[in-house]
C-alpha cells in the first residue's frame, strides 16, 4: 500500500496514527521533530501528515520546505481551526486539514481519498521535484512551464522518465523508446539528445 510520513511532537498521536494506518496496510515513518527529517528520502513517501504546532520548526515552515521537494499530498493535523490559519497552510502547499481531535473513520477516509486522487493523477502524469510529464497531452513541464520539445525529443524524455536510473544505448532508445520512422538512426538520437539538453539549459534545468 502507501508509504506515509507522520510528523508530530506527541508520541500518543503518532501511536494512534500508526495503529490505524497499519490496519489498512500502509507503512508509517514516525518523526517527532522536524529537524530529524532526512530530506534525501522525502521523495519516497506517498503522503505526508504534519502537525502545525511543534517546537523548533513549525508545521507551516516545514510544509513550505517539503513542498519544494515533493508533490505528494501533504495533510495538516492541527488543533488550529481559525480560517486564516487554514488559508495560510493551503497557500504554503498543503492539500488538506484534519482537525484534532479526529476520529478513526475521518482519518482513514481523508487519507484514502487523497491517495486515490494521487493514483488517478499519476496514471496520466509522471512527476519529479520540479518537472512533470503530462502523458495524455504529450507535454513536458519544468516549474509549470512547457518545454517546446518536438515529437521525437518528447518520446525520448518520456521513455527515460519511465525508466529512471537505467542506462540505455542509442540503439535501445531508438528501438524501445522513440518509435520514430524507419529512416531514423543513431545520429537522429544524438541530435535529439543534443537539442533536448539545449532546451533544458534554456529553462535552467540542465
Present the secondary structure layout:
Blueprint lengths: L2 E5 L3 H13 L3 E5 L15 E5 L7 H9 L6 E5 L4 H9 L4 E4 L4 H19 L2 E3 L3 E4 L4 E4 L2 E2 L4 H11 L8 H9 L7 H17 L4
Parallel strand pairs: 1-2, 1-3, 3-4, 4-5
Antiparallel strand pairs: 6-7, 7-8, 8-9
Helix pairs in contact: 5-6, 5-7
* CATH classification class of the largest domain: Alpha Beta
| Overall domain count | 2
User: Alpha-carbon distance between the termini?
Assistant: 34 Å
Q: How many helical elements? A: 7
Structural class by secondary-structure content = alpha/beta
Please write the string of helix (H) and strand (E) elements.
EHEEHEHEHEEEEHHH
Number of strands: 9
Mean pLDDT: 87
- Helix residue percentage: 40-55%
CATH topology of the largest domain: Rossmann fold
* CATH homologous superfamily placement of the largest domain: Response regulator
Residue stretches low in confidence (pLDDT < 50, at least 5 long) are: none
Report on the architecture of this protein.
With 206 residues, the protein is an alpha/beta fold. It folds into 2 domains: 3-122, 3-Layer(aba) Sandwich (Rossmann fold); 126-202, Arc Repressor Mutant, subunit A (Orthogonal Bundle). It is built from 7 helices and 9 strands, in the order βαββαβαβαββββααα. It has helices at 11-23, 59-67, 83-91, 104-122, 151-161, 170-178, 186-202; strands spanning 3-7, 27-31, 47-51, 74-78, 96-99, 125-127, 131-134, 139-142, 145-146. Strands 2-1-3-4-5 form a 5-stranded parallel sheet, sandwiched between helices. The longest helix is centred in the middle third of the chain and has 19 residues, at 104-122. The chain starts with a strand and ends with a helix.
Amino acid at each position: 500500500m502507501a508509504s506515509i510520513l507522520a510528523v508530530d511532537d506527541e508520541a500518543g498521536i503518532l501511536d494512534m496514527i500508526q495503529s490505524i494506518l497499519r490496519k489498512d496496510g500502509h507503512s508509517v515513518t514516525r518523526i517527532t521533530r522536524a529537524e530529524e527529517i532526512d530530506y534525501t528520502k522525502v521523495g519516497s513517501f506517498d503522503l505526508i501528515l504534519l502537525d502545525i504546532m511543534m517546537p523548533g520548526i513549525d508545521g507551516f515552515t516545514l510544509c513550505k520546505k517539503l513542498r519544494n521537494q515533493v508533490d505528494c499530498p501533504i495533510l495538516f493535523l492541527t488543533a488550529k481551526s481559525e480560517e486564516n490559519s487554514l488559508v495560510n497552510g493551503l497557500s504554503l502547499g498543503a492539500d488538506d486539514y484534519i482537525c484534532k481531535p479526529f476520529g478513526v473513520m475521518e482519518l482513514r477516509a481523508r487519507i484514502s481519498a487523497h491517495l486515490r486522487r494521487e493514483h488517478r493523477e499519476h496514471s496520466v502524469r509522471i512527476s519529479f521535484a520540479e518537472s512533470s510529464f503530462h502523458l495524455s497531452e504529450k507535454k513536458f513541464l519544468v516549474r509549470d512551464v512547457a518545454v517546446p520539445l518536438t515529437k521525437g525529443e518528447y518520446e525520448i524524455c518520456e521513455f527515460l522518465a519511465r525508466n529512471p536510473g537505467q542506462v540505455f544505448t542509442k540503439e535501445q532508445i531508438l528501438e524501445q523508446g522513440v518509435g520514430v520512422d524507419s529512416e531514423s538512426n543513431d545520429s537522429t538520437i544524438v541530435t535529439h539528445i543534443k537539442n533536448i539538453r539545449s532546451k533544458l539549459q534554456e529553462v535552467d534545468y540542465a
